[in-house]
């Protein structure tokens, strides 16, 4: 019993010491790529972000979005010129972890915490 308790304590200490790397400020600005799949077809979304704007390049078209940072690792993106009601909805993005040139994130429409999706963005410039 004592050995089992000691093993549990050691494992708990090891797990509690692990911190996910989140250098979010490294990814506030720059040019990024995000790969995603729709109906089995892979697409690439390229975007350039400044402190307050994001320019999204999709299938030869450019969309401009406002960017409002909640904290260093969370921000809200909203289209400046929406073409439909769906485009009017803001998207909440939270950076979960970072590496040297990429970050893992989760995103959902603002207020929709049940339908979160995850992705990875790679900084290309």
Give an overview of the whole structure.
With 125 residues, the protein is mainly beta. Helices cover 12% and strands 51% of the residues. It is built from one helix and eight strands. An eight-stranded antiparallel barrel has the order 1-2-3-4-5-6-7-8. The longest helix has 15 residues, at 2-16. The radius of gyration is 18 Å and the shape is globular. The N and C termini lie far apart (55 Å). It comes from Zhouia spongiae. This is DNA topoisomerase IV.
Topology-level CATH name:
Lipocalin
Mean pLDDT reading: 86
Question: How do the strands line up in the largest sheet?
Answer: 1-2-3-4-5-6-7-8
| Beta-strand share of residues | over 45%
Number of strands: 8
User: The biggest beta sheet, please?
Assistant: 8 strands, antiparallel, barrel
CATH architecture: Beta Barrel
Number of helices: 1
N-to-C span: 55 Å
Q: Unreliable stretches, pLDDT < 50, 5 or more residues?
A: none
Based on helices, strands and strand pairing, what is the structural class?
Answer: mainly beta
Task: Provide a compact summary of the structure.
The protein has one domain (21-123): Lipocalin (Beta Barrel).
